[in-house]
Amino acid sequence: MKISFSIYSSWRLRSLRRIAQPAQWPKSLCLVLLFVFALAGPLAAAATDDVPSYIATEKGLNRFALSANGKSAPIYVSADDYPGVARVAKHLQADIKQVTNAEPQLTVGKKAPKAKEIVLVGTLGKSPLIDKLVRDKKLDVAGIAGRWETSLIQVVEKPMRGVDRALVIVGSDKRGTIYGMYDLSEEIGVSPWYWWADVPVKQKQNVYVLPGRHTEGEPAIKYRGFFINDEAPALSGWSQEKFGGFNHKFYDKVFELLLRMKGNYLWPAMWGNAIYDDDSLSAPLADEYGVVLGTSHHEPLTRAHDEWRRYGKGAWNYNTNKENLQEFWRKGMERMGTNESIVTIGMRGDGDEPMSEGSNIALLEQIVADQRQIIADVTGKPASETPQIWALYKEVQDYYDRGMRVPDDVTLLLADDNWGNIRKLPKPGEKQHSGGYGIYYHYDYVGGPRNYKWLNTNPIPRVWEQMHMAHKYGADRIWIVNVGDIKPMEFPLEFFMDYAWNPDKWPAERLQEYTVTWAEEQFGSQYAQPIAEILATYSKYNGRRKPELISPETYSLTNYREAERVVEEYNQLVEKAEKIYQEMPAGYKDAFYQLVLFPAKASANLNELHITTGKNHLYAKQNRAAANDMAAKVRELFEKDQALMKYYNEELADGKWSHMMDQTHISYTYWQQPEKDVMPTVKLVNVASGAKMGVAVEGSDTWWPREKGQAELPEFTPFGQQTHYIELFNQGKDPFTYKVQSGAPWLNVSSMQGTVEKEQRLLISVDWQKAPTGVQQVPITITGPNNTTVKVQAVINNPVDLKPGVVKGFVESNGYVSMEAAHYTRAVDRGTIEWQLIPDLGKTMSAMSPFPVTAETQQPGGDSPRLEYRMHLLNAGEVKVHAYLSPTLNFNASEGLKFAVSIDDAEPQIINMHKEDSEGAWNKWVADNINIQTSTHKIDKPGEHVLRFWMVDPGVVLQKIVVDTGGLEPSYLGPPESYYQPEKANQ
Ligand code: REL
Predict the structure, then answer these.
(1) Highest taxon of the source (predicted)?
(2) How many angstroms does the Cα of residue 409 sit away from the middle of ligand 1?
(3) DSSP letter assigned to residue 647
(4) Dihedral angle, C-alpha 213, 216, 218, 220, nearest 10 °
(5) Distance 353 CA to ligand 1 centre (A)
(6) What's the CATH fold of domain 223-501?
(7) Which residue, 179, 385, 591, 729, is the most exposed by fewest CB within 10 angstroms?
(8) pLDDT tens-digit profile of 779-835?
(9) 2: phi then psi, degrees, rounded to nearest 5
């Protein structure tokens, strides 16, 4: 599929907004704006508009020279400020040096150094100098004081005696100041991924900060973070080799990355690891940085799961071992001390398993009460004063649904189904739980139906769609995403953090722009567009089915040329990426390789590997000599896969990412990963001497002359796929010659005679200018060695009254109509409800969904909200309508999410997309990443019809509709879109 990235922007992802620029604007305009700002409140006025960067490389009136002519302005941090602020100031110092080659002087002390221009960094209430500027009315902090994590960057003229101009970076709190510094770093050209993905620093000779006030306001989501999980073998092997394990040196890099992305919350690695216990310097370092430490959903009271293995006495069972468990947890709270943390409460079974049969709600409530008592005892404060979460993960949500409650101050961490589909959201209008709600989301998972932990498989449009709902339904206290090994989730991870900071900034229609901007921040503007396209497309393709679930049977080898299209599309992507890689400056290659080229290549290769294995199996069944070539190709692709991993591990960035691609991903037989990658099983055929012709046709897996029945091609119509193929293949060792005879002069065959060594594909097409109208059966006769003759029937349907370009809407061919949701004829909005396109969401194109997502349930019919699809059907009779929906879950605990379908004026049929409420159904939805719902409809006469897709519940996301008029063949993605003449009216 071709995505067009029409919107181009150079807005930054998280740049602080400029609030005013009085010195450069005409006075009258300033007065008007001042008035507008005054009405809207100190920061709110300009905070809704994006502005381009607040950095310039040219000198200008009242611009602050951060670095000019080889000299950088000194940085000053008060000795009274947080040590974390001083630590990050060192990063700022290093960043400015990297960008400009001129290292600024950094002073952390009681007195600022003497300089005409100076960078003053400080936290309100922690920096006497900045507090004095506020008192002297030289710095207005009205919009930031008392706010959460808010920073302000402002150029202040004559801040104090002897100083002409200062660049003040002030924070409302510790993280506010830190974010201000990292924002400046990013703005001057240091990506948050400069270390974690080797993104080159964008060097500049001179750097100026524009006058005015720059702020990004408060984050929409209070705690934003990620969970390092499932970290063996990749991240574990890497951290062991590079840092000696998951120690404070490793976490130093993690904390920095998190904060550069303006995150604040971390669940540390826990597969045999325990952050507090492994290295006593790690947790204090987190606290110094301002990273809020938690433990994962099943590790109560800050104690890592592995610590129970290390120190626990007796069984992990509250019924039988309460005292020891309490003691264990108490130690966790004592150790936490005053470190800023969010404490997990509740209990699951040992090793993240459900609790035993005997566990019940009363017992769990007791556990929570006892845990809170420990929290209160140890902290000496009421439990409600320590932030806590209770994660409604897996069976724990069932306890909640059955009535279990925890005290109101605890944040309820709602979860997805481990596959990116949120299971539960607060009810709109429901009394707000004072602890609020959060979301635990997955980009990586170990569990059924299958692990997915090798590559990034998370297209951001679906993440957007789910997290948009979370935001709108009020789950805004905490967002945490399971990122596995961190790499290779760089792109979706940063999207998660940016979206959490300001969801309103990124409506669906700006997602492509987000991707371009991200690409630009890493690689500069020259290739930003094509790189964004590759990023979006490889994740889209990987989102169709996790690589771990791909098998030789996934894509149809015979219908709709599905498998070969998949290979072709992936390979085109790789070709584009390779071209950019060759062209781009050497300094960018490592970053580009890990962020773009490698995932595209590795995914393309993996898909081709399985599809080629499928071809080998099919060919072997048909006894084709070429089956053995396919087997050889499988070996080649398998070796290429291993070579790609080896390059990533050993050569990329001189071995910096050693072990990072240790994850096995081939030869899964059940949910758990294989011990090692094993080449898929291939079949070899014995090729006899001599020549023997076999003939296969598109749409069938059998061959002739073995098959007695008639060989028939899919139907030709002016409205469908314009060529169909016949394959001639050799079952023997020696080449043979063939001759083809077409039964009509207007039925073209790409080659009328020739020699076949192994195989030859003939493309058949119709010259519509010359073909008669009506339905014709035309034989194509192929004669091969030993007078073997095979007759293939071509059916040509050239309707009298239906002409391309004249007919409107979609047209049936080959027994189906396949319609992309985005290609509706008419979208009918009503009241506040409107249909919106979510660009690029879904397996084949884009998706449509009704908004707002909190809208009331609708009664379908009459003039209620609907999408209409005009289609031309060739016959009367019964048809089946398959609606392809994103596998959204029943997040509002109703009977299930519903929509309705009707054709023409028939009564809408209401369909519950969750009517099959079984583990089997869910397994299929998530594995296939689609929920297909089918309804049956009567068509009274051939001709034009209107299919209506009605809104019933919000949250239903339609990707495509396939109408089966009797000829639909099995495939994974559904048939490619049918012929259609676009026509959009009355939207
Ligand atoms: O993905 C999840 O949330 C869980 O499977 C993990 O939290 C779990 O701890 C797993 O890594 C095993 O311990």
Answers:
(1) Bacteria
(2) 25
(3) I
(4) 160
(5) 9
(6) TIM Barrel (3.20.20)
(7) 385
(8) 999 999 999 999 999 999 999 989 898 899 999 999 999 999 999 999 999 999 999
(9) -105, 125
